[in-house]
Amino acid sequence: MKLNRCPICRCNIDIFALAKDEATSQLLAKLAKIDTLSGTSLMDYLTLFAPAKTALTANKALRLVTEVEALSGGDWGRLAVAMATTVDIQRAKQQRGETVKPFTTHNYLKKVFEQMPNEEPQRTALAPLGGALPSANATATVFADFSRAGLVATGNKSKTAQTMDAINARKLK
């Protein structure tokens, strides 16, 4: 059964082929249980572990997702912001021409996550950068601070700002 086309290479994806691999099947089951916002942040975060010249294997991705799941402690909202912040910081380093090696542990994410207060997610994104927590218009403030810090190009929202927008929109419902 053809599920869809790959959004990147446009090849057909066969759902039966995916289900035949044990690790891929377990990985998809875990991802299906996570909300879309957190899942997107998680998938972006996993790219930080990908080797430079090869793809991330399903077994390694499954192990990483299981480890991140344990880190979340059920607080996927805060962890989604922490993962998006981690990805933004690493991408900013790459854009500045710094050498960024693939991650081997979750230590960097743990630092970012631990620095975030146990408050609503939209008020916590600046904590890893040492900035003041935003008040009324959290998303605009965070985006402006990230832009000034060189974490995003002007006119393009960072993954953190996009994640925070989605969290704010969900809270308004």
SSE blueprint and pairings:
Elements: E1 2-5, E2 12-14, H1 15-20, H2 22-32, H3 36-46, H4 58-72, H5 76-95, H6 107-115, H7 138-148, H8 159-172
Antiparallel strand pairs: 1-2
Helix pairs in contact: 2-4, 3-5, 5-6, 5-8, 7-8
Would you tell me the overall average pLDDT? 75
From the alpha-carbon coordinates, what is the Rg to the nearest angstrom?
A: 17 Å
Task: Provide a count of the helices.
Answer: 8
Parts with pLDDT < 50 across at least 5 consecutive residues? 120-155
Strand content: under 5%
Helix content range of the residues, please? 55-70%
The assigned structural class equals mainly alpha
Please list the strands of the largest sheet in the order they lie side by side.
1-2
How far the N terminus sits from the C terminus, by CA atoms, comes to: 36 Å
Q: Describe the biggest sheet?
A: 2 strands, antiparallel
- Form type: globular
Order of secondary-structure elements: EEHHHHHHHH
User: What is the strand tally?
Assistant: 2
Number of domains: 1
